[in-house]
Amino acid sequence: MARNVPAARKATIAGLAWLVGFIIFFPVLWMFLTSFKTELDAFASPPSFLFFDWTLENYSVVQERSDYFKYALNSIWLSVGSTALGLLIAVPAAWAMAFSPTKRTRGTLLWMLSTKMMPPVGVLIPIYLIFRDLGLLDTRSGLIMVLFLMNLPIIVWMLYTYFKEIPVDILEAARMDGATLAKEIVYVLAPMAVPGIASTVLLNVILCWNEAFWTLNLTTSDAAPLTAFIASYSSPEGLFWAKLSAASTMAIAPIIILGWFSQKQLVRGLTFGAVK
Amino acid sequence: MATQQTKTLARFMAAPSIVLLFLWMIVPLGMTVYFSLLRYNLLSPGEESFTGFSNYQYFLTDPAFFEALTNTLVLVGSVLVITVVFGVLFALLLDQPFFGQGVVRLMVIAPFFIMPTVSALVWKNLLMHPVSGLFAYIAKVFGLQPVDWFADIPLLSIILLVSWQWLPFATLILLTAVGSLDGEQKEAAEMDGAGPFSLFFYIILPHLARAITVVILIETIFLLSIFAEIFVTTGGGPGLETTNIAFLVYAQALLQFDVGGASAGGIVAVILANIVAIFLVRMVGKNLDA
Amino acid sequence: MGRIVLEKVTKSFGDVKVIPNIDLLVEDGEFVVFVGPSGCGKSTLLRLIAGLEDTSGGAIRIDGQDVANEPPAKRGLSMVFQSYALYPHMSVRNNVAFGLKMAGETKEVIKQKVDHAASILNLTDYLDRRPGQLSGGQRQRVAIGRAIVREPKAFLFDEPLSNLDAALRVQMRLEITQLHQSLKTTMIYVTHDQVEAMTMADKIVVLNAGNIEQFGSPLDLYNKPANLFVAGFIGSPKMNFVIGPEAEKQNAATIGIRPEHVSILTTEPTDADGPAWPASVGIAEHLGSDTFLYMTVDGIGSMTVRASGEVALKHGDRIWLVPDLTRLHRFDADGLALDR
């Protein structure tokens, strides 16, 4: 609107919005600040907001005493491995459904959607027992498989919606230009699909990194990612808030940054295209 | 586009994902159904016996089940109300142009990307701790008694925590939907003499109805399975006050080792989720045809 | 080279028979336009010739060889799409070169041919830009360049001017016609705009619901329409149709007279003038070069009259309309022309 909004109204809106943003973001900010305090300062009441002795000791301690990087590596393995596997299986499927739809395509897509809606608790026991008997408990590969299957519907769906947006006549033009199927895919389809694939990768990495059901139940130490590592702080010994904050800040930082860049993808992926 | 070759090729390309998801659905779920009909306890393996529907009978008549069911419904319902109401309000607020709009948006979105275990522990310790938590400090500043959140009002505490996590999701979805409202429609309404409240109720809200429905359906699916937050803060307690169906099944399976009973509970959870799923699938299906 | 024959071609989508039966001969070097209302099957027919859709029956012969089972790449045809369908991630040069690259030509040959096509179409300055940086008209030319460079047996155009503004459309129409004159390659051109059809075509195929209503040169269709449909489709403003007593006087179920073949009498007509219809002016459109009069004719109904130059008439004026009997068209009860 190019009309003149009265300055008072503009200021009220800005003030209100900033207040809301600040309140919602505050726990994150508070955690971030706490990570730089000593344990005594962290637990002190009344708490200090900015004026305390800033220290980096928590960050070094977290790595020394509890091998933070091992858990981070597991999180990375999990996210990357499950996403790579997901792409491998989902890209051909989404391609087929977007460019060669049959009467069954719609039904298949909706069925895949419905598999995502099954509560994990419904299959916890069999998966746990199968993993136990196959020696897959507390292994990265087992966990990668489970997360891959849980997120496969979302990956297929997202890729499908992106592929559908590629104009068919550009592919037909390639065909008229003499391209075989393989060349059509390599020279035309793939380059145009790359942004959509990247968005899907982004969202899936975030979902795997934050997954907190299977990672808590199927791992103990070897394959435990950051979610489980942080969970271990729920019943610790002695003062731990500052260390918890440091560990948490490190655990969430990469994902918050990725998340800030993936808002649009989130809307598309988690609403299965129902909201545009 | 479809020649015969492409059609056959397409079938092969879709096959792996369909087969894998099919197995993922059938095999474990089938096993859960099978287990739910047995008397099977992990502490006494090899003594399984077929027991028909008695697990279901037991599970559904167990007072623990009713408490868990009530907790689940209260938890899901409250979070839905909070996130949708505030989601709409914040979406409308953030849609307005103002200085630093992008930054505020990022601040509001952030909680959704934080792993549940971190959110839960930050709230439990740094904010809600009755002695040194920030809320306790604020209470003291106003001369009030600090609340022992997770001991006295555990379910409400969890509700607040989960609402904080999911509010960004609702806000983001609704903000996207608000942004798609045609500016000219609003101008036409203004020409017709609509004030801000009429504008909201007659133009904006109906436009958002679809997005709100999607938010409700998707959140319900995920909220029914809340686990980590409970696991890490209260462990279901005190007593059963914060146990939802998901946690109850987990507790029975992995803490009490009652595979049979827990499987029955798992199937109950699946049925509940399926009821919601039917509506969501129908909605998305309509959108596919559009 | 470029002689295309359609023999008993049919096309069904599921149970719907979109094209019941088409027989058509396009001679080498002809500019043939497929024209008709939306949904008449003209684009479908073009896509069948291109190979982007499979026929449900019949043969498509290019230079004698039936290509109905060949993929598009093997038919030796080029197509210009309505949306241009340029590859967004490639430069103009690579867009134009793509077909040659697929055919396995050497880099030198490709460069030479691309540069040549670019000079014909005034694209030389844009060769390194991406489609996203070009205007609509420039993108059009790139699409045409991509088609030319492969030296096909025939060009297929699918409503290429629809997305351009009016002024650009006129210019591109001329350019495409000039291209045809210099290349002398067969061109099949689909449009819903009968002005494009009339101005560009050697022969026009008028399609309606998958059937060919008439196939002939533009002036054939204008002067001797075979039925009511063609008579009403070709010519702008539309031909006036009259039924009832006036038509019976001419021994026909319907008579048709084009707006430009009706004269105006402002004074009482004499017998020497022939049949004269009293009428009132509804709306008068003054363009300076022409005047269009939308009349209500006593006992007949609405009629459109086109007069040359300026005519000082306005709403409510009463005049007489005199049709040129030598340009009168007569149709029988089935809609077929009587003077064939």
Helical content band of chain B: over 70%
Q: So what's the overall shape of chain B? A: globular
Counted beta strands of chain B? 2
Span of the ends, CA to CA of chain B: 21 Å
- The oligomeric state of the chains shown is heterotrimer
What does this structure look like?
The complex is a heterotrimer of chains A (276), B (290) and C (340). Chain A has 13 helices and no strands. Chain A has helices spanning 7-34, 39-43, 57-66, 68-99, 105-116, 124-134, 140-164, 168-176, 181-210, 214-217, 226-231, 241-261, 263-270. In chain A, helix 4 packs antiparallel against helix 9 (181-210). The model of chain A has no long low-confidence stretch (mean pLDDT 86). Helix content of chain B is 75%, strand content 1%. Chain B contains 13 helices and two strands, in the order αββαααααααααααα. Chain B has helices at 4-36, 54-61, 63-95, 101-109, 116-127, 134-141, 149-152, 154-179, 183-191, 196-223, 228-233, 245-255, 259-289; strands spanning 38-39, 49-50. The model of chain B has no long low-confidence stretch (mean pLDDT 85). In chain C, helix 5 links the parallel strand 7 and strand 8. Classes of the chains: A mainly alpha (276), B mainly alpha (290), C alpha+beta (340). Chains in contact: A-B, A-C. The interface between A and B is large, with 99 and 110 residues.
Structural key phrases:
heterotrimer; B: 290 residues; mainly alpha; two-stranded antiparallel ribbon; 75% helix; C: 340 residues; elongated
Per-chain topology:
The complex is a heterotrimer of chains A (276), B (290) and C (340).
Chain A: H1 7-34, H2 39-43, H3 57-66, H4 68-99, H5 105-116, H6 124-134, H7 140-164, H8 168-176, H9 181-210, H10 214-217, H11 226-231, H12 241-261, H13 263-270
Chain B: H1 4-36, E1 38-39, E2 49-50, H2 54-61, H3 63-95, H4 101-109, H5 116-127, H6 134-141, H7 149-152, H8 154-179, H9 183-191, H10 196-223, H11 228-233, H12 245-255, H13 259-289
Antiparallel strand pairs in B: 1-2
Chain C: E1 4-13, E2 16-26, E3 31-35, H1 42-50, E4 57-62, E5 65-66, E6 77-80, H2 92-102, H3 107-120, H4 136-148, E7 154-158, H5 166-183, E8 186-191, H6 194-200, E9 203-208, E10 211-216, H7 218-223, H8 228-233, E11 240-243, H9 245-249, E12 254-257, E13 262-265, E14 277-286, E15 290-297, E16 301-308, E17 318-323, E18 329-331
Helix pairs in contact in C: 2-3, 2-4
